[in-house]
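Lab notebook, bench 4. Still working through the backlog of constructs that have no structural model yet. Next entry is a single chain of 259 residues. Request: give me the structure tokens for it.
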Amino acid sequence: MDLGLKGKRALVCASSKGLGLGCARSLADAGVALVMNARSADALEAAAADIRTEFDVPVTTVACDVTTEEGQQTLLAAAGDLDILVTNAGGPPPGMWSDWERDDFIAALDANMLTPIALMKAVLPGMMARGWGRVVNITSQSVRAPIGVLGLSNAARTGLTGYVAGTSRQVAHAGVTINNLLPGIHATDRAVSLDKGVTEAQGITMDEAKAQREATIPARRYGTKEEFGAACAFLCSQHAGFIVGQNILLDGGGTNITM
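Model written out:
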């Protein structure tokens, strides 16, 4: 399927590894020029070099902390006019409701709600003026079915979901779509972190922790960054212009809901 994206320009945040890298690679495979961002310059440059070699597309790298105003300004200045924005940030640490103080919630909001909003506010006017644009926010299955130990993520990402619900419907007339991808457990560093927490809490091995979690997923496995990236690329494609303000689960059936 031709996604109709050749020659478009995309900013993919937190794209040196994990789900962000999966999205960057799928967009590059469709002929999209990339602006890739991460905090670690070494990992970012290595990922970008692989993409340039494999897909022969231009890749600009910007190593910065995009949760800060300075980082956002640096990234947006390097990105220029964008056709596609993929927002992404690692989730805050797990814990219990009694563990978190105000500063913990502010940090979660900065990373998982306020930063995506700031980036959208910066790029949406240009997309609307040009009559075409795609925004995909990587959030979490927890916005549909909250996970107790991920209270910080539940709160921040649900706030972003509410913002997107209204904003997406205000920009759709200009050919711009905004949608959210809601991952369940994928084979990324985040899964390793969560499984490690289980090993420490239950005194079991990493393999046992993974098997225990996989048993709760109807697909009986973790997702891959490749299939996640393919879903992102489709939402960015010429075929997805009538998909507006949606929250799309990629969780192997793990979220037991009807809608």
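Notes after review: The mean pLDDT is 95. The radius of gyration is 18 Å. Flag for follow-up if needed.
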